[in-house]
Amino acid sequence: MKRGIVLAAGLALAFAAAASDSVRFGNQLVVLGDAEAHVLKVAGRLSLRADVQNQYGAVVGHRLDYDVGNKTVSIYVGQDGRVTKIAETYN
Q1: In angstroms, what CA-CA distances link 83 with 17, 21, 74, 77, 80?
Q2: Which has the closest alpha carbon to 16: 65, 67, 73, 89?
Q3: 40 exposure class (CB count in 10 Å sphere: 0-12, 13-18, 19+)
Q4: Hey, which residues does 22 pair with through a beta bridge?
Q5: SS3 5
Q6: Contact present, 32 and 21 (Cβ < 8 Å)
Q7: pTM of the predicted model, to two decimals?
Q8: Strand, coil or helix: what is 6?
Q9: Cα separation, 59 vs 86, whole angstroms
Q10: How far apart are the C-alpha atoms of 50 and 63, rounded to whole Å?
Q11: For residue 11, is pLDDT > 70?
Q12: Max CA pair span of the chain
């Protein structure tokens, strides 16, 4: 029984998005608080740019998605133009 629970938890984590404080693009690093201009310079051409809305539909920032190998790196930028969250989703 214990093995089944551990296996189910492991599978859930394997497909979940991993959040972190930094992400590497080649030999360059993007960290929380970096300016959007720095992200665009370091990460290069993005795959998708989407608005992020709050529960009332107001745009509170945007998400920059990059396809890197077998994962998608999502970088969230707030209205102040700074990175607020970094998430990696494995495809």
Answers
A1: 17, 10, 10, 4, 9
A2: 89
A3: middle
A4: 31
A5: helix
A6: yes
A7: 0.78
A8: helix
A9: 18
A10: 5
A11: no
A12: 50
Give percent of the chain above pLDDT 70: 79
**Angstrom distance (rounded) from CA 33 to CA 25:** 16
Find out whether 19 and 69 touch, Cβ atoms under 8 Å.
no
Average pLDDT over residues 30-48: 95
Q: How many helices (H) and strands (E) does the chain have?
A: 2, 7
Token pair listed for 77: 């930028």
Token pair of 78 as six digits: 């707030």
**What residue type is 50 in one-letter code?**
A
DSSP 8-45: HHHHHHHHSPEEESEEEETTEEEETT-BHHHHHHHH-S
Query: Is the CB of residue 66 less than 8 Å from the CB of residue 47?
Result: yes
65 close to 86: Cβ distance less than 8 angstroms:
no
